[in-house]
Amino acid sequence: MTEQSGVRLDKWLWAARFFKTRRLAVEAIDGGKVQVNGGRAKAAKEVRPGFQIRIRKGPFEYEVVVTGLAERRGSAKDAAGLYEETPESMARRERLREQLAASPPPVMPDSRPDKKDRRRLAAFKRGS
User: Domains in the chain, please, with CATH?
Assistant: First the structure.
């Protein structure tokens, strides 16, 4: 962790281990899956301690407050010290995890769809 005024958002997300690569972090930011202080941000946005960041990854949403800065990726223990997740965020994720565990797994068909199945699927998608 370094003492500095701010760090690029994509670097911080990568260093805090929310994304495996900076490229994935940039794609998430560009896709609107990351908000800083309640608004959309760009990858070059400078993050400082006290900023509130909301990150959507798959069905889960993390709401964290920045407590530290780092430009380099360190251990998972170091990364956990860069932010503090809000209690509401942890509760929401736990509820969603329980809902997903309780829901039945998706049913996979026994074989590939035949022509009749494809026509029915196309009609369903059209809304007919």
Answer: 7-89+96-102 (3.10.290.10)
Task: Label residue 65 exposed, middle or buried (CB < 10 Å: 0-12, 13-18, 19+).
Answer: middle
CA 102 to chain centroid, in Å, comes to 22
- Here the tokens at position 82 are 């860069």
Contact (Cβ atoms closer than 8 angstroms) between residue 47 and residue 6: yes
CB 83 within 8 A of CB 69: no
| Token output for 91 | 């509760």
The pLDDT tens digits for 12-41 are: 999 999 999 999 999 999 999 999 999 999
Length of the chain, in residues = 128
